[in-house]
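Hi support team,

I've been running sequence recovery on a batch of backbones for a student project. Most finish fine, but this one hangs at about 90% for roughly twenty minutes before it completes. I'm not sure whether the input is malformed or the queue is just slow. I've pasted the structure tokens below so you can try to reproduce it. Let me know if you need the job ID as well.

Thanks,
M.K.
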């Protein structure tokens, strides 16, 4: 039997409030208990340092989304964000669990609450059970329930004291936040320091990997002989040479000056890392007595020819060793030994290439930076951390590919500089011919830079100006300047020897003292010989610049004073020989 609308509405309101009350009670308990668990976790992590939770990556990611500047849990912004995220996470988890797991009241539960509060002796409970029951009392129960429903107030029957139920959970959350913000990180077992070191390596690795990708995008992918800028500059020079007229030397001069300035600026930009020194002389950095590596010398000569093919082959061998290294299982002792051998091979090959870059190129050259990055990544592969080693291996492969691009760019730059040198030389010869009033127009068959260069070289020879063929100082006229190159492979009669002349008097190996009267003048002769020997040794040392210049004058004055005092000593020593006690002949 259907009950009137009044009691049904009251029962529904009471049931809804009962459900909210039970949900709030379950949520309060869940928040409290999860706060206790979180506080214990924070204490264990901060006091022991045995567990490395991924807090920093999460904090930095969320901070990036929110536009906050933080380095992780190492500053107050990161700690505040971590505590906020932890509290919100606890609340969200507890709310979800409370929604899925709480007691849902029935109509009978709502009726019992009304009857218990108003003392209606199970009137509303009976009302909920009238459906399907037999008897004449049903209209009477319904009428009494309707009359009682008018004075039922659901908020008094089931109050919702959220302020009282939220005190303990709020206190638990506050304790968690205080521990996160105020409890320092201890490291009794050294695990935190190790984790910080790995984290720093990982961050540095990510920064270097970003640099690698950025630089790789900047480099050209084509392997053309010359860059577009150099091609355009040479085309402009050839066009200017074609437009020269013998009858208008002033216009010719302006054109050539403009082209020379353009070529000079481009040459300066291309040679920002002093590559021209390597192209002019392969062993410019070689020190006296230092033996250059044949491999490095071979690479330098190859670079002079505008090629880096052998360097690329060396890089390919490193990449192959890296692939073999990746295919080995570190848990297998035999494979672990092979990994160590492969790592040593890769490090040696990389050291050779880095030695070439440091000796033959400027230290700020992008190739040197890429090789340094590769060395760091190779070192990170041996850190012992599996995740860091795998990431380093991946980034090392990218760096090897970038190094290959840098070598390609280096070879192209070398060819560009050579072409610019030819263009500048041609422009200088054209300017000289223009100043001397030579015919500079209508050169038959001249279409390229080489054609004009050959023509002006022949013209300079006819004019009496000798042009240097090599890259050395050259003869009078248009030599390239700089230092004369050396060729270590040339066979000469030079011998590495050291002069055997004595610089000092030498050591006394044996001395025997005897009693008796010495011969006349022996001591004086011995003294004079010793002084002369020392003087000779000092003179040789001065000639060989082994004595600082500031001491030379003092030493000369000292020996001069000895020479001046020698006659007086000789005269005094000769006096006893003329006395009556002197031996007679």
């Amino acid at each position: 039997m259907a009950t009137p609308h009044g009691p049904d509405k009251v029962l529904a309101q009471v049931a809804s409030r009962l459900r909210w009350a039970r949900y709030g009670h379950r949520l309060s308990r869940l928040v409290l208990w999860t706060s206790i668990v979180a506080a214990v976790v924070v204490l264990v992590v901060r006091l022991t340092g045995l567990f490395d939770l991924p807090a920093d990556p999460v904090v930095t990611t969320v901070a990036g989304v929110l536009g906050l500047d933080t380095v992780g849990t190492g500053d107050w912004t990161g700690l505040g964000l971590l505590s906020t995220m932890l509290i919100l996470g606890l609340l969200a988890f507890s709310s979800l669990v409370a929604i899925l797991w709480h007691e849902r009241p029935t109509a009978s539960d709502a009726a019992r609450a009304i009857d218990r509060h108003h003392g209606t002796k199970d009137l509303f409970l009976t009302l909920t059970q009238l459906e399907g029951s037999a008897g004449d009392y049903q209209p009477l129960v319904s009428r009494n329930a309707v009359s009682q429903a008018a004075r039922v107030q659901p908020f008094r029957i089931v109050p919702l004291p959220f302020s009282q139920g939220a005190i303990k959970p709020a206190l638990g959350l506050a304790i968690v936040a205080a521990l996160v913000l105020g409890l320092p990180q201890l490291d009794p077992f050294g695990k935190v320091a190790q984790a910080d070191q790995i984290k720093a390596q990982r961050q540095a690795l990510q920064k270097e990997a970003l640099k690698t990708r950025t630089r790789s995008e900047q480099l050209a992918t084509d392997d053309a002989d010359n860059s577009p800028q150099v091609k355009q500059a040479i085309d402009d020079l050839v066009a200017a040479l074609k437009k020269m007229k013998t009858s208008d030397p002033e216009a010719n001069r302006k054109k050539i000056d403009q082209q020379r300035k353009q070529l000079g600026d481009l040459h300066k930009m291309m040679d920002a890392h002093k590559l021209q020194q390597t192209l002019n002389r392969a062993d410019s950095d070689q020190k006296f007595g230092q033996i250059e590596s044949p491999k490095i010398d071979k690479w330098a000569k190859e670079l002079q020819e505008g090629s880096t093919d052998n360097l690329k082959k060396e890089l390919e061998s490193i990449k192959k060793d890296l692939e073999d290294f990746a295919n080995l299982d570190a848990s297998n002792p035999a494979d672990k030994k092979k990994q160590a051998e492969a790592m040593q091979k890769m490090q040696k090959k990389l050291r050779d290439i880095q030695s070439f870059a440091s000796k033959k190129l400027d230290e700020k050259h992008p190739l040197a930076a890429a090789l340094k990055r590769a060395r760091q990544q190779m070192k990170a592969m041996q850190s012992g951390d599996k995740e860091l080693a795998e990431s380093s291996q991946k980034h090392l492969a990218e760096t090897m590919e970038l190094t290959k691009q840098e070598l390609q760019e280096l070879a192209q730059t070398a060819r560009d500089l050579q072409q610019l040198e030819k263009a500048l030389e041609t422009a200088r010869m054209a300017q000289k011919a223009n100043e001397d009033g030579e015919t500079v127009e209508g050169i038959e068959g001249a279409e390229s830079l080489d054609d004009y260069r050959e023509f002006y070289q022949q013209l300079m020879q006819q004019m009496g100006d000798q042009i240097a063929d090599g890259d050395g100082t050259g003869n009078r006229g248009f030599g390239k300047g700089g230092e004369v190159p050396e060729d270590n492979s040339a066979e000469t009669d030079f011998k590495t020897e050291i002069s055997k002349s004595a610089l000092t008097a030498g050591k006394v190996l044996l001395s025997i003292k005897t009693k008796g009267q010495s011969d006349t003048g022996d001591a004086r002769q011995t003294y004079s010989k010793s002084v002369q020997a020392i003087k000779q040794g000092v003179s040789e040392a001065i000639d060989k610049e082994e004595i600082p210049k500031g001491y030379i004058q003092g030493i000369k004055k000292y020996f001069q004073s000895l020479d001046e005092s020698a006659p007086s000593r000789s005269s005094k020593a000769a006096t006893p020989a003329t006395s009556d006690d002197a031996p007679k002949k």
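--
Follow-up from support: It reproduced on our side and the slowdown came from queue contention, not your input. Residues 199-281+293-430 form one domain. No action needed from you.
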